[in-house]
Amino acid sequence: MSATADRVSMRERFQAGSSPPALLIIPALILVGGFFVIPYLYLLYMSFMTHTTGAAYIREFTLENYTETLRDPFNWRIIWQTLRFGIVTTLVTLILSYPLAYHMARAQSRVKGLLMILLLAPLLVGIVIRSYGWMILLADTGLVNQLAEAFGVGPFALMYNRTGVMIGLVHIYMPFMALSLLGSIQGIDPDIERAARSLGANGWQTFWRVTWPLSLPGVASGTVLVFVLTVSSYVIPSLLGGHRVITVPLLVVQTVQQIFNWPLGSALAIVFFVITIAIVGVYLKMMDRVMKGER
Amino acid sequence: MELTRWGQFALHAVATLLYLFLLAPIFIVVIAAFNSGEYLRFPPEGFSLRWFRSLLSSEPFIESFLFSLQLAVTVTILATVIGTAAALYIVRHAGRLRSPLQLLMISPLPVPAILTGIALLIFFYATDISRSSFTHLVIGHTLVCLPYVFLTVSTVLVGFDRSLEEAARSLGAGPLTTFFRITLPILKSGMVSGAVFAFIISFDQFPISLLLSGVGSTPLPVQLFDYLRFSFDPTAAAVSTVTIVMTVIVVLVTERLVGLESLYNRGKS
Prior knowledge:
The structure holds 2 protein chains of 2 kinds. Chain A has a single domain, classed as Orthogonal Bundle (MetI-like fold). Helix content of chain A is 77%, strand content 0%. Chain A is built from 14 helices and no strands. The radius of gyration of chain A is 25 Å and the shape is globular. In chain A, 41% of the residues are buried. In chain B, 47% of the residues are buried. Chain B is an all-alpha fold. In chain B, helix 1 crosses helix 11, helix 7 packs antiparallel against helix 8 and helix 8 crosses helix 12.
C-alpha cells in the first residue's frame, strides 16, 4: 500500500470511529477462506487420491478416479438424466412464470405488494415441507388421484417416478424464475407496447417483436439460475422420486456417505460441476449473441 | 401488450391458477395436520388436534426442533456480527480490494449447497479440526447465511450519509458513542433483514445439514426427511405446521421492526 493510501485509511478509521478496520474483516476471511475456499481446494486434491477398502483414501496421486468416472456408462446415463431434468424444468418454469411475472409487473402497486407476498411465501417454507405437501397430493391414494377417481379416471402414477420429480422441481424453482423475469418486464414501458399496437401489430406480434426481446436479460438470468439449482437439487429427486430416480447429487452423496469412496465421489462431483459450468457458459454466450442481434 | 378485455381475464385466470399451484402444498400440509384421519380424504374427515398431541410425545421431532432452534439462533448471531463487520470494512476501507472481497463474501451463494456440504464433510473428517457435529453445522450454516447479511448491510452502507458521523464527532462524541448512537441505528434495518434471512435459511437448510449432522444432532429438516422416507403420517404435518407458524411470526415481527418492504427490497439487490 502506498503512503497516501495509508493516510486515507487512517483518516477513514478515525472518522468511522471504530477499532482498527482490518480487524473487522478477519472473522469473515477466516470463515470463507478457511471453511469454504480451502475445503473446495481439498475436494479437488481428494479427487486425485487413491481409494482403498481399509480407509477413505490414501495419499497416493492417481488419475484413476477421473478415468473411472468418465468411462462408466452408468455415470453418463445419470448425468444425462440430471441434465434433462434441468433443461425441462427450466423450460416449463419459464413458460409458467412468464404470465405470472407479466401479470405482476402490470398490476397496480397496491395489489403488487400482496402478489409479491404470495410469490415469496413458498420460499419461506422449507423445501422438505413443500415436498411433503406434494407427497400428500400425488400419492397413489392422494388427493389428486381421489379427484381423478371421482371423475372416473386414473389412478395415475404421479409419485416415485419422473413425473413426481418434475412437478416438485417446477414448483420449487418457479418463484426464482418469476422474480428474475419480473425485473426485466417491469422495465418495459407499457407505452412501447401500446405504440406497437397502434401501429397495427396484433397482440401476438407485439409480444414476440417487442415484449419478449426486451425481457431477454431476465430470461437469461432466470434460466441460468433455475438450471443450476435444478441439477444440484437433492431433496425433490430423493423424496418424490423414491429410490427409482437417481440424479448426480444423489449418486455423489451415496458414493461419499455410504460407499465411503471419497476420491471417486469428489471426482464425479467435479466432473459434473465442470459440465454444468460449461453448459451455462455456452448458453450465456448464445444469449448474448441473440440479444445483440435483436438490437 | 395492450390486452383486450378477454385477454385481461385470461391473464388473471392463469395467474390465479399459478398462485394456487405455488401455495397448494403448503395449505395441504396445514390441513393434513388438523385432519382427524390417517390419510387426507376429500372432504376432510373432521377437525382434530391428535397429530399435535402425537408430536408432543415424539421425542425425535421435539429434540430436533429444539436443536434446529438452537442452531439457527447461534448461526443468526454469528452471521449477523461477522457479515456486518465485513460489510463495514469492505464498503468503507477496502479500497482497491473492494470488488474481489465482495466476490469472496458472496461466493458461497452461487455454488450448490450440496457440494459445499460434501467439501466440508471431507475437510472436517480429514483434518480433524473438531469432532462436534454442532460446531460443523454452525460453520456450514454460517457460511451460507453470511452472504445475505453481507448484502443487506452493504446496501444500507452504500447509501449511508457519512456527514452524520462527522457531525457527531465534531460535536464531541467519541468514536464508540458515534458508532453506537449513529452508525448502528442506521444499519439496523439492513442487519435485521439479514438476520431474519439467516434465521429462516438456517432453520430450513437441508443439504449441508444432511451431510454434517451426527448422532444426537439432527436438525429438523433432516429428521423430517428421514421420517418421510418410510411413512408420511400426519405427525410430520403437525411439526411442519409449527415451523410454518413460527416463520410467519418471525416475518410479522420483522414487519413491525423494520417494515416488510425493506426485507425484500434489500434482499433483491
